[in-house]
């Protein structure tokens, strides 16, 4: 079927290489293809090199996708011309032009795709810093820290410590502590939180620091301009035919309106009259008043009461006037108080010191966060008056900039782009191409500001004006869904745009895919029932779809991770496989809590809570009564001391004594071995010896434990960072991602994670839930463009402990809440538009005694959808949910019963065994054989076979690869058997010899194939004394029963001949020497070899 692309002219216009554009590309509009085509057009017009064109996006995934699209297009251009009606014909044509340019200039883009300058904004910043290490003040490039919270903590603690005793600075700290009722811990937390957003406030605070003598007057004038603008807006939106009536009523009802008049440009002293009028007409919630009584100036027999009632009725259709009055209600005062000013002074003096402390910490730790990376990149480019040589070089080098996902730009990112483009002039041949969708801006928590997109649409960037374009086609969702999107989001999105608050109107879409019968948007109201009913209904609906359409993809998109557990349980009860992505924090898993307790206890023998926790853990398994006895005996000693001296005469139960004896044996042994092992190996070894793996009930839990030990190892390498507190905080940032062997499992992920993805069927649960409340900030700030075209700055500290509120702080918080509310609307849009075939919405609703449904919670998704569904809510009463959740509750109770090891269980010994040889059955389970093969490869790669075999080390590695406790001894013996064979085998000694030339273990090579870039790994390769290149693979196979060695080697060569030939072919293109291929079998000391191309078996 041929699709009519109704925005084709817009797409063609966007490919004009002489113009700069900003393209709004809604969900499913094909922006990546448009970006690819624009990039190809510019490549075909490049004057000198492909590096003239730079494409920037915000994630490595997006970079990889765009680079792959370009390479794929160049590959497509080598194929025959597709049908002209095919949607990729135009891409093929553009790529043809690029290939001609490529051949003419010998760019060899297909062999060197890295010449395509496609990178993340952070990668660009890192490049700038590397080029100018002195200007960026880095020197050697530091490591980027994904979780810099501990760095913020160090900087903040140093500030608070070092300021004490400093006459110049201590009074400012004293003022902040007085402001917060001397709560130093709260001040520390608030300062740490500020550091995570310093790219937004640092420039304002530095300006305030440098201009302190004029700052208060400037801030007061900003307040006054805001108030004046709000009054002008109210005047302009006052219904003309009601002005005289409103004047009469206001003067009658309120003394503050005695001199009230409507003026086009009201003076500041008229604000009290406007404020009184706003409160006369609106409730505290900002709605038109419904009742008129003495409380607002109209007693029962007042002759103007009926006029007031009629006027309020008339005003109900004037929403713009209502919003203007609401703005006046919430307006800040015209002046800062002395208390506010003293606190602002303290903050503007101390915050520069705090950022300086953070810079020192960054240098000491040789680590930085992403904010610092971007701030230093700005320094590397200089300023407008004196750009650096690097800035001038980039100005000469870059001819065209393409930026994807521009709605996710932060203020620092924008400043970086402005500096790169500082020398650009209109019509000088350089172009800027911005693509994004402000309706999908959902990353304010990462400092993204959608207002920057709106500002670029209106004002351009730097000296470059941008032609705004809008795509309207939706190639993702079927027609029924697109119609629902248009009807619904046109209602709930704002009607106008506003840069300062991030207010974005809805842009309607046109469906490219036809409607699908019986597939659209379904709303499931769970009436007067709880979370269990909702979860059961979700699972039931998913099962129905799975049975009808087993190959369709299904996604459950959740707002918060708290929704995951009840839904996961409902899916498990129906045996529906699912994969959860970054949902459940690892620290909430019981097995990880046990590992944390074990780590704490082993590192600190006086940690009473941790020791009691591990004694209760399944691998120890003491009962509560016995724990109480131990605890009572440990009043003046540690729990470990009690364990050491517990004997048979103790009042403990016999079960507990047996368990204590076992625990004491293994832990005593562990403490003896502590200095001989790394921390990770030690903790893991103790856990294994106590039987920790045997207490796990699912293979996913092995992966979770592996993640914990990987984290412990990473923290251990950075000794300056490691502490129990840091370990616990980092555990909170790891997630227990479930795995499944089932094809096409249900995907469970957050809405933010789903952006950029698509699924056949999308489920949105918990529409009734409120978003989490944002934490208070020590300082709020606002930079706005005023009506005169200038910039206004507002700063407001958190309210004093002695005040109930701070009007300026509350005003800025209201602005922030408006931004957040608008983003919630956009978040709902992102979630809904992931669907291709159907969308399923779930919410718990309730009604009162009169069967009238209660209004949804404020800022919830359901509140936004209420205008759509409230008119049909009466239908919900006829099919109230009757799902029985009792069985679910009982099942959960059963599942939560504590499990523990048997008293006589025999876990793996922590002490290495001394037996030299035991006959073992080496016919392993396929999965075991694969893991043992991996271990043997690692041993051959990392050490000589003559090196002592570390049992504890390789037991830990076997466990991390998935070997269970009862399988461990067999696998260890197999590995020892293989090493013993190799030690006595001259062939193995020759293979592993260090005397060879150009010697490689686990040699990774990359080659270009028809499918793209592919990597291979060669186990062993070297050049022998006869100048022959050897390519050798290790195999853990052994002859089957009754199979001769000759037949076995012949079978193995036939199995691996083609793969080894590919390896040899690759090396033959780079070397001119004979090549031989060999397979070595350490479990049976067997060997076969052949010549490359000749296949002569020896």
CATH class of the largest domain: Alpha Beta
CATH H level, superfamily name of the largest domain: P-loop containing nucleotide triphosphate hydrolases
Q: Write down the overall mean pLDDT.
A: 85
The CATH architecture of the largest domain can be given as 3-Layer(aba) Sandwich
Q: Major sheet, described briefly?
A: 6 strands, parallel
Helix and strand composition category: alpha/beta
Please report the distance between the alpha carbons of the first and last residues: 60 Å
Strands, helices and their partners?
Layout: H1 8-13, E1 21-24, H2 31-45, E2 53-57, H3 60-76, H4 89-105, E3 117-120, H5 121-131, E4 143-144, H6 149-163, H7 170-179, H8 184-195, H9 198-210, H10 212-237, H11 243-253, H12 271-281, H13 305-315, H14 319-329, H15 338-365, E5 367-368, H16 370-380, H17 389-397, E6 400-403, H18 411-420, E7 431-436, H19 451-459, E8 467-470, E9 473-478, H20 479-492, E10 510-513, E11 521-527, H21 531-548, E12 554-558, H22 564-573, E13 578-580, H23 590-603, H24 608-616, H25 624-633, H26 639-644, H27 654-673, H28 679-689, H29 699-717, H30 724-732, E14 746-750, H31 751-754, E15 759-764, E16 779-785, E17 791-797, H32 807-832, E18 835-845, H33 861-869, H34 886-895, H35 926-942, H36 951-960, H37 965-983, H38 986-992, E19 997-1009, E20 1012-1023, E21 1029-1034, H39 1045-1068, E22 1075-1081, E23 1086-1091
Parallel strand pairs: 1-7, 1-8, 2-3, 2-6, 4-5, 6-7, 9-10, 11-18, 12-14, 12-15, 13-14, 15-18, 21-22
Antiparallel strand pairs: 16-17, 19-20, 20-21, 22-23
Helix pairs in contact: 2-3, 2-4, 3-4, 5-16, 6-8, 6-15, 7-15, 9-15, 10-14, 12-14, 16-18, 21-22, 23-24, 27-28, 28-36, 29-30, 35-37, 36-37
